[in-house]
Amino acid sequence: MKEFSWPVRVYYEDTDAGGVVFYANYLKFFERARTEMLRSYGFEQDRLMARDNVIFVVRSVSIDYLKPARFNEQILVGAKIIENKKTSLTFEQTITRQHDVLCNGKVRIACIDAQSMKPKLIPIAILEQLT
């Protein structure tokens, strides 16, 4: 499967009182990488909702925190699809600083109908580009 990486600078607002990234903010970094991955293939989420009535939501997350990221560091957020189904994608995501793995996780994303909020088939054009 295709791999994608997105550079992120750690801002003061991302950190806790100790100057390390607050644990929940790693999920925000994961989200940004997935969004930028879609964008890099020409898929804007607002257009998918307007045109195809499709939105993507997080179904489940598993994350392991290994080392802290700190204020003002440059980190790299990776995203790779490791499983694709008719209505969901599972991403393996990793955050690194140079050669150090800071955290890794698996995020399962469900495709749903924007109106009914029920599962919907992932548009074939997306699957063809991402997998």
UniProtKB/TrEMBL annotation:
InterPro entries: 4-hydroxybenzoyl-CoA_TE, HotDog_dom_sf, Thioestr_dom, Tol-Pal_acyl-CoA_thioesterase, YbgC/YbaW. It comes from the Bacteria. Residues 18-103 form the Thioesterase domain. The keyword ATP-binding does not apply. Keywords: Hydrolase. Belongs to the 4-hydroxybenzoyl-CoA thioesterase family. This is Tol-pal system-associated acyl-CoA thioesterase. The lineage of its organism: Bacteria, Pseudomonadati, Pseudomonadota, Gammaproteobacteria, Methylococcales. The gene is ybgC.
